[in-house]
Amino acid sequence: MNYPEASNFIEEIVTTDLASGKWTHVHTRFPPEPNGYLHIGHAKSICLNFGLAKKYGGQCNLRFDDTNPSKEETEYVDSIMDDIKWLGFEWSELHYASDYFQQLYDFAVHMIKEGKAYVCDLSAEDMRQFRGTLTEVGRNSPYRDRSVDENLDLFERMRLGEFDEGTHVLRAKIDMASPNMNLRDPAMYRIMKVPHHRTGDTWCIYPMYDFTHGINDALEQITHSICTLEFEDHRPLYDWFLRQIPVPCYPHQIEFARLNLTYTVMSKRKLLQLVMSGAVNGWDDPRMPTIAGMRRRGYPPEALRAFAEKIGVAKMFSTIDIELLQFCVREQLNKTAHRVMVVLRPIKLIIDNYPDDHVEWLDADNNPEDPDAGKRQIPFCKELFIESDDFKEDPPPKYFRLSIGKEIRLKHAYYITAHSVVKDDCGHVATIHCTYDPESRGGWSKDGRKVLGTSHWVSAKHAVEAEVRCYDHLFTQQNPEDVAEGHDFMEGFNQQSIQTLIGCKAEPSLVEKNVGNRFQFLRQGYFCVDNDSQRDKLVFNQTVTLKDAWAKIEKKN
Ligand code: ATP
Ligand code: MG
């Protein structure tokens, strides 16, 4: 049999398993806990799990790992499903760990009957003491040798709600002297008198991750259970649980290094803190490393998938430059985004020799990179807005943009030469007066005369008001999670991470666009229409600048 060529260590394992007949197919799963929105690290895991299934003609399930009701909510479940679909993946089966609660309970009872689990009354603190340390073996709990009958009775009463939280736990009976701390009689069930977002008040005991996860994998006949490196030490426990109960198969747990990005944080706990403290505007704030935030920011799903592909999977922990992600975004948008003209910091330009009420509709390519993107018409008239940065009264040497006596090109339109300015009461230039060369229509002179500068512009009469939100890194340091003792990661929050420009002037074609549509604003970068946008007040998010910082970083390396 021929298998697709393996491109990383996980695919090598899969190929070997298929070749040896250990498995005849591939079935993976993506198992998020619905305690927050998904972030770009999850996107890596999604691309990996769904990607493997696709590559090997197998299946990938979505399973909500909802065993801790105190932190889980339906809002998160819904957002996770939205994000996966938006990324371009479809799950084969949808499951919830909570659907297995009865089955898990029955398995726990089975283990008690086999003498493999017991109810322990030690307090959390005592349990920690008894557990020992990496250099010291643990001690057996005084409750370890309870009879099967007593354990069955106590476990049943835990379930019935007779005991307070923290008074009893069900523990696996493994080995308190194991060099692997995870095998020192880990907890299987705890009492939690908290309603669950799906099962309501049915349960007041909830199964622990380690007990639940492998069993769920086995019941769904998952072949390769992929997780991040911190679970490597849990693998012996994963395997141990599966051998205590009658399961249909033995999935193989494989660990890979989690993704970290510079200038941002990646744990849901910290992202939740950003949201709850009001530092950002919700989980989908365009500055957030969440999938919802990136979507709102204008990152295309193709770019996230390309990024996941580029970084690959490895066992080695590393932090990826956020510029690489932005590079992938830019690359995708360069191919697909229509070019438009928006003036972010407008200054008025009057063409003295242009007829007063005349309007010309000029042809403009939607995307020079894509001939199929077509053309549109943009209105040109006597009064325009240009970027205030594009004019200087006292130009420094090598300033190729507009200044008095200088000629530049207005993109898609004409050559113009500036002659004078009118200032406001504060002495700032308010209006620039210029003349145009009617022979240079389309932006090219007949006599072959060259100009060095080209400005974008918008017709004053046709301009649409816009608000443009520009973003910088969420944190000021490269590795915001590396904080010194006694300090909090929030101290590194970049207070300047958002800059809102109002009074921007957009070309009229943008009125017809929909939330999420992405554009290149000529000479400015890539932008998308924000959810807050309205017909008479457009709102855009800056997705990424045109400047490629990644190329520089790559050169340096
Ligand atoms: P966090 O610590 O951010 O809350 P988590 O691992 O607790 O993340 P889960 O909802 O349990 O979040 O994760 C679902 C899946 O996504 C798991 O298989 C997990 O290993 C994977 N995952 C989570 N974070 C990352 C990351 N940074 N890089 C790659 N995979 C990740
Ligand atoms: Mg988790």
Task: Provide structural commentary.
By secondary structure, the protein is an alpha/beta fold. It has 3 domains: 9-256, HUPs (Rossmann fold); 268-338 and 466-556, Ribosomal Protein L25, Chain P; 342-456, Ribosomal Protein L25, Chain P. It has 13 helices and 27 strands. The strands form 7 sheets. It has a 7-stranded mixed beta sheet, covered by helices on one side. Helix 2 crosses helix 11 (301-311). The radius of gyration is 31 Å and the shape is elongated. The mean pLDDT is 96. Bound molecules: adenosine-5'-triphosphate and magnesium ion. Residues 31-33, 41-42, 44-45, 65, 227-228, 258-259, 266-268 line the site of adenosine-5'-triphosphate (ATP).
